[in-house]
Structure formats: C-alpha cells, structure tokens
Amino acid sequence: TQLLEQSPQFLSIQEGENLTVYCNSSSVFSSLQWYRQEPGEGPVLLVTVVTGGEVKKLKRLTFQFGDARKDSSLHITAAQPGDTGLYLCAETGFQKLVFGTGTRLLVSP
Amino acid sequence: DAGVTQSPTHLIKTRGQHVTLRCSPISGHKSVSWYQQVLGQGPQFIFQYYEKEERGRGNFPDRFSARQFPNYSSELNVNALLLGDSALYLCASSLLLAGGTTQYFGPGTRLTVL
Questions:
Q1: CA within 20 to 30 Å of B2's CA: A28, B30, B43, B106, which one?
Q2: Which residues of chain B are within 8 Å of residue A90 when distances are taken between CB atoms?
Q3: Which CATH number is correct for B5-113, 3.30.70.270, 1.20.1250.20, 2.60.40.10, 3.40.30.10?
Q4: CB contact under 8 A, B107 and A41
Q5: Residue A52: helix, strand or coil by DSSP?
C-alpha cells in the first residue's frame, strides 16, 4: 500500500512569509495531485503533476514533482490569510485517490 | 451549476445504531466515490460506484455498504456504529471512472458517534 507522508504536519506563519510543504512516498507515483481543504468543506483540487521534474505555478503557489516521481513540494510565496487550510497531496490511482497525512497551515495577519 | 451536495450536514448517533448518508453528484457525472476523513488525517477511500455498479472498495469492514441509483445519486450506509466511525464522510463525483479524471468533492457529512 502506497504511504504518503507530508511534512510539516502543522505550520503557523505570519502574512507575507514564504513556506514549503513536502509530500513523500514509499514508491513511485503514477501522478500526483495537491488539494486544499478549508474548514467545513471538501478538498478542492489545486494541481495535477504527471512528469518527473515537472514544475507548475498557480499564482503564488509553485508545485514541483521530483525527478524520480517519489516526492513533491508546494511552495507558497508571500502567504496570505486566505491561504489558511489543510493541504493534501494524493496519488491518483485507477479507482481512487490515496491521500497523504496533510499539512495544516495557519497564516496570521 | 450546482456542485456535489451531501446530506445531512451533521449527524449524531449512538453506538450500535445505523446511519445513511446521501450524495448527489454534479449533473452529468456518472461516478461517485466515498471517503472517510478522521480528524487530523487525510481522507481514506471507502467505495467507488460507476453506472450503478461497485467498481472499487477500500479496506473497510462489511458494516459499510453503499449503492448508486439510476439518477447517479448515492447512499452510504454504516451499520452497528462504533465510536471510531466518528469522522467527516466525503462524497466525490467525476465524469468518468478512469484514473486521472478530476474528482469534485462535496462539503461532507460530519458524523459523531457517542
């Protein structure tokens, strides 16, 4: 069974700071997705990465997929309170998503 | 367009009882998946249904069952509730069954078992 570990588990920062969260696997990902989940809501897809070494940008968010496709990172530049939430990575299997343990981010004004 | 809807929003049950959770997918989506999210963890896959047939099952006991109706809505049933069943139950819909198809999640049903 694929194990996805995310680090750190919890991050509390001030508005304007930069941060990076990580997602690591015990084996090679087929493809990887990043989600953000806000309290009282379901996860919302941010990005899908497929190719080793791939880099995708979504405004202030930069997603990297490791060359060996066993790890991924999410970097947020100049964090804002609206970035607060639970960040989840997930491997996309044929029938299901296998989620990581999550990183809970709190951005204070 | 309406997103994935789930009902009820919150539910409180006692041990041993039975619960039914409901999900309406996005219009046109034929696949519905159910996930359990225990506090502080990522969601775990329970079931996937496509065209009214079960297409995938996670590592959950037989107390968990589900079905999909002709209009593609779905129910998740849990019998003989245990304290450990307390969680957020998420429903996700997608257009197709194939991997890589984007899944859209509903807001979830928060189940508390006392």
A1: B43
A2: 42
A3: 2.60.40.10
A4: yes
A5: coil
